[in-house]
Amino acid sequence: MEKILKQLPQKAREKMTENRKFFAKLKKRPPKNLDYVMQELHEEEFERTDCLDCANCCKTTGPLFTNADIERIAKSFKQKPQVFIDSYLKIDEDNDYVLQQLPCPFLGADNYCSIYDVRPKACREFPHTDRKKFQQIAHLTMKNVAICPAAFNIVEAMKERLPQK
Ligand code: SF4
Ligand code: SF4
Q1: Any residues with Cβ below 6 Å from ligand 1, and which?
Q2: CA 128/CA 94 separation, integer angstroms
């Protein structure tokens, strides 16, 4: 996995133009079975890929924290939300709460998440490859293929399953 992660940004750069064209066409005319195909590709990929071998999203990117995330996680620490914010979060250029530092402080050396049951919604949903109307998050996906080897593989499989002319 280490080698895969090291090569991923370069591989993603090489696919950027092809992916941009693919998603532009997909957006114009999304196939009727897109949600179904994405669900299938997502499940197939995550049968092969074990996030515990990777944790690259937790190490390099980190999630946005919604107010509901902050309240839920702070409660699990028996803290006031503001105490949690002051300890771990900052506001980014888009005015969202994000981690003060990476890798995520809740990631263990064994790649387990110490707040797994209450983790942010964005962590639960990353890399968003099973979400409905996948074509709407093309821009985000093109960034995620450089971070997440599973997202990279899913987009490659997508291009084979749903070729755009
Ligand atoms: S979601 Fe992607 S980047 Fe995150 S741990 Fe799993 S395979 Fe790695
Ligand atoms: S909260 Fe957990 S799942 Fe989310 S980035 Fe941190 S370690 Fe990863």
Answers
A1: 49, 51, 54-57, 126-127, 147-150
A2: 20
